[in-house]
Each structure stands twice: as structure tokens, then as C-alpha cells.
Amino acid sequence: MSLNFNDVPVQNLEQLRPRLTQLTHSLRKLEDSMAASATLPNWSNLQNQYNVILSQLTSFSRTMDLNKDVLKHTNVYPNTEFDTTQFEGLLTTLLRKKHLPEVAEWIENNMTDVSREDLAKDDQVAAEYLKLSEELLGEFSFDDNTPLEGSDKPETPGVDVYKYMFGGGAK
């Protein structure tokens, strides 16, 4: 008996594999770096890893979106050469149609539509925080020419932000 694989969307599935592999590798690297010590990793390294993961997740998501029709109508089944007795647990997991309870809950919680009122509330909160940050920023002076306390380096003229960062420079 010869199997016909002409109708299998191999190209569509193979587009997903490297993106998912990269994403998994990056997430594992982030997890390992955070578990390596009791303190958080360097902020810039953490941000760089986050940016890489975000771009990989975006790429994976776009690829999934481009192939959603094919993936939605593709049925998975083992071929005749698959040893079902030895890999029964793996086969059951791969062919599972029902989501795990925590996954189903996550999907249900995130499938709600965002209303215009919710977006308006977000805009209102953002405007309040912007106003508050401008008020707080107004309490500090950036034009004081006094040297930094505890600093033996001569201050560069016109760089008052460093003074603020070092001493606070409250009015």
C-alpha cells in the first residue's frame, strides 16, 4: 500500500517549524538566564531578549495568520509506520482535540471584544498619568550650576540632567 502525501500542506507546516523553534529557544534562554541567579539579569540584556522574543512571536503569529485556513482544515493522523504501542502517550497528546482546562480558561478570558468605552477609559488613564508626570517633573530644576555632591569629576557645562539623576535636584 502506497501512501499519497500530495494533499498534505507540507510547505505551510514547514514555514511554522523554524519560527516556533526559534521562539522556543529564545524563551528557554530567557528562562535560564532568570533562573541562573537570585537577582534579575542586566536590564539591557533582559530588554534585548524581550525584543527578540517579541519579534519572533510576531513573525510566528503572522505566519499562523497567513496559513490559518490550511491549518484549520488540516487533520492530523499517524501513518502506518508510526509505532502506536511504543508512543501511545505522545500520540494521544498530539491527537487531542480538547484544550487543557487552563488553556481553555485562558482562551475564554482573552476572546472578549474590547468596547469603545474600555478604550476611552484607557485613554483617560493615560492622560491622567501624563498630567501627573508633567506636574512631578515641574518640581525639579535642571538649570542649577552647583557641582554634584560626592563627585570629584568636573561637571560638563550644559548637562544638568546628570545632576538631576545623581542628586534629585528638587526645587
Summarize it.
Its main location: nucleus. By secondary structure, the chain is mainly alpha-helical.
Walkthrough of the structure:
This protein has 171 residues and is mainly alpha-helical. The protein has two domains: 10-100, Methane Monooxygenase Hydroxylase, Chain G, domain 1 (Up-down Bundle); 119-167, no CATH class. The protein has helices at residues 10-35, 43-66, 68-72, 88-94, 101-110, 116-138, 160-167. The mean pLDDT is 77. It is found in: Nucleus.
Keywords:
7 helices; 0% strand; mainly alpha; 171 residues; Methane Monooxygenase Hydroxylase, Chain G, domain 1; 2 domains
Question: Could you outline the blueprint of secondary structure elements for this entry?
Answer:
Blueprint: H1 10-35, H2 43-66, H3 68-72, H4 88-94, H5 101-110, H6 116-138, H7 160-167
Helix pairs in contact: 1-2
* Total beta strand runs: 0
- CATH classification class of the largest domain: Mainly Alpha
Coarse structural class:
mainly alpha
Question: What is the helical fraction, as a range of percent?
Answer: 55-70%
Strand content: under 5%
User: Major sheet, described briefly?
Assistant: none
Q: Could you spell the SSE succession in H and E letters? A: HHHHHHH
- Write the CATH architecture name of the largest domain: Up-down Bundle
Average per-residue pLDDT, rounded, comes to: 77
CATH structural fold name of the largest domain: Methane Monooxygenase Hydroxylase, Chain G, domain 1
Distance between the termini: 86 Å
Shape: elongated
How many H/I helical runs? Answer: 7
Number of separate domains: 2
How many whole angstroms does the radius of gyration measure?
27 Å
Q: Which stretches are poorly predicted, pLDDT < 50 over at least 5 residues?
A: none
